[in-house]
User: What shape does this take?
Amino acid sequence: MSELKQEFLKRSTTSIFISVVVISLILYSSNLILNIFISILSLALLLEWMSVLKSSNKKRSIFLMLFIVLIAFNHYFGGLFQPISFITMLGITVWIVVAYQIFLKHGRLSSNFAFNNFWIGLLLVITFCLVCFQLVTGSRIFLLAVIFNIAIFDTGAYIIGKNFGRNSFLPKLSPNKTIEGLIGGFISSIFFIICAFLFLEEVSLPLALTLIFAIPFALCGDYFFSFLKRKADVKDTGNILPGHGGLLDRLDSHLAAIPMTLFFSLLLHTIGSYF
Assistant: This one.
């Protein structure tokens, strides 16, 4: 068996296992259990961010305490910031800035973006965590659609890119990601969104549009973490997931696209209220 086929088999097995766990939790667990899972996952993401450059135990303790305090604060006082918390808005602003630099500044990113900037890591992980909390209280089916939309984009881009990719999109950030792969990922995602809109009552036309608008940010998250890893001179952020690497390697696109999906949903809802 060729190395490419072995890698694809390993990635596929891991992806199927993750999918079964995620679907089971989202469809059958209580809000409490699901929120605990999201909190633990987010905590693991933050720990992985800090472990890339082997931060001191003191720094880890400080940022882990900040994470716990912010989550607790949101739990007790989040209602003051509805429909979207101040912290979440800051995280979304960071992703908009990153997207601006990637797509409109020829792939240049600020020197402030690095794994040793734990404040950025804390903000992005907290944003991801709080947005997932908010989506859990809404439609569980739509939450699944959001997660699988991003995963399908990643999978389509990976398969097409590996087999047919010839032209790099932004070689300075990630030379292995190609234009052909991005087109494959985009087409795969659009096909999934059309099916979700046609067959799922929970996915209305405005929500289908938010899924489409989030696709560039899935790409943005992928490129952002590729940039961080190249800057830190590491291939993967961990090895917990066979065929994928670390949690950040697998959820890089989700960290950006899930918060932006909520942002576009609120934006379209606000615009629609004027008509």
